[in-house]
Design goal:
five-stranded mixed β-barrel, 393 residues, five-stranded parallel beta sheet, single chain, OB fold (Dihydrolipoamide Acetyltransferase, E2P), alpha/beta, 3 domains, Rossmann fold, 12 helices
């Protein structure tokens, strides 16, 4: 048998507890008792369950994160590590998280499951898919008797009555609800829906807990089409909110997210039609201008146009040639008249007209001197109008 001092024993117990993996990360459910807050800000209390109890310490930094300090008699769920306080020889729970019991336990389970699924990539933002702009078929998973269904249907019919609704009923709370939700989802996966709404109205955390079920989350993850979660109110958060492609704060909001407003669509279509018509009108006008310009260019280069131009050129040349010829003809006529006048002035006929006569021999030789004739020669005398013969004496 080994003899130990108190310090040695306490150190042994401390090391023994510190080496235990379970005690380093443990949740403990119990009732607050003997709660006190030291002037330093640290809190000391006892967790009780029937006759069992354990001392607990919550440091100032942990207490500062709480919305309100717990009260004696309040059932809580405390997370932390169990260690041995050597000074007093006391086992204590060093609390780093403190939540109300019940919901707190569920929340702790929720957080662990959430962390695990996040590590598997179920919440990866890169896998989030955009919602279809104009869905033809919209699947709805919710209770057939809940107000959420009517809210969703009213909005879908008002905003986008063109879409076909495919309803997959399920239970949204209570025992077996998760299985009905999973079956409803997989039933929709067999149809040709474009988007799915998983909806449930508001309620307490326990009422919404079905949507924190791991298998429900995995069923949503397996969806071949985008899923919108519309569970509870805006302040409620369930596991499928993280898995779904889009999280809506309410069922009504989910319906609005998946359904385009037909009034706005009509206005948009009218606006786009006007823009299209204006654009087409402008394009037609531009095309007509282009065609007219090309036709003009083509006509200018066409053989017919060239023939017309050549004919016009020929006409112009003819006109110029005619004009030139006429001027030359007039000039020639003027010159001719002048020459004629001069010739007529020098003409023997003109001389004859003035009373002179031409004397010539019978052979036609002009007799210009008296020595050219002898007595009895016959001569011919030409006067202005006629001729006659004579004898030289």
């Amino acid at each position: 048998m080994q003899l130990l001092t108190v310090s040695q024993l306490n150190m042994y117990l401390r090391d023994l507890l510190d080496a235990d993996d379970l005690l380093r990360d443990v949740w403990v459910e119990g009732e607050i008792s003997s709660f006190s807050r030291h002037f330093s800000g640290h809190c000391y209390f006892t967790l009780k369950e029937g006759e069992a109890q354990i001392g607990a310490v919550m440091w100032k930094s942990v207490a500062a994160r709480l919305a309100a300090l717990p009260a004696n008699g309040e059932a809580v769920l405390a997370h932390g590590r169990v260690a041995f306080y050597e000074v007093r020889g006391q086992v204590q729970l060093y609390v780093d998280t403190l939540r109300p019991a019940g919901i707190g336990l569920l929340q702790a389970q929720f957080e662990r499951l959430k962390e695990r699924l996040a590590a598997e990539g179920l919440f990866d933002p890169s896998r989030k898919r955009p919602l279809p702009l104009l869905p033809h078929r919209i699947g709805i998973v919710t209770s057939p008797t809940g107000a959420a269904l009517q809210d969703v249907l009213n909005i879908l019919r008002r905003r986008y009555p063109l879409a076909e609704i495919v309803f997959a009923p399920c239970r949204v709370q209570g025992a077996g609800a998760a299985e009905t939700i999973i079956n409803a989802l997989y039933a929709l996966y067999e149809t040709n829906v474009d988007v799915i709404i998983v909806a449930r109205g508001g309620g307490g955390a326990e009422d919404l807990w079905t949507f924190n079920d791991e298998q429900v989350a995995r069923a949503v993850f397996a969806s071949p089409v985008p899923v919108v979660s519309g569970v509870g109110h805006e302040t409620d958060t369930t596991l499928i909110d993280f898995v779904a492609d889009v999280r809506a704060p309410t069922p009504s909001a989910a319906a609005e997210l998946v359904s385009p407003d037909i009034v706005a669509l009509t206005d948009d279509i009218a606006h786009m039609r006007n823009r299209l018509e204006a654009a087409m009108t402008q394009r037609l006008a531009n095309a007509r201008e282009t065609i007219d310009r090309l036709k003009l260019r083509l006509s200018l280069r066409s053989p017919e146009s060239r023939i017309r131009r050549d004919r016009q050129h020929i006409d112009e040349l003819l006109r110029r040639a005619t004009s030139t010829l006429e001027r030359r003809l007039i000039l020639a006529r003027t010159r001719l008249d002048g020459a004629r006048g001069r010739l007529e002035a020098l003409s023997p006929l003109a001389t004859l007209a003035r009373g002179y006569a031409i004397v010539q021999s019978p052979t036609g030789t002009l007799i210009t001197e008296a020595a050219q004739v002898a007595p009895d020669d016959r001569i011919e005398i030409i006067v202005r109008r006629g001729r006659f013969h004579a004898h030289v004496e």
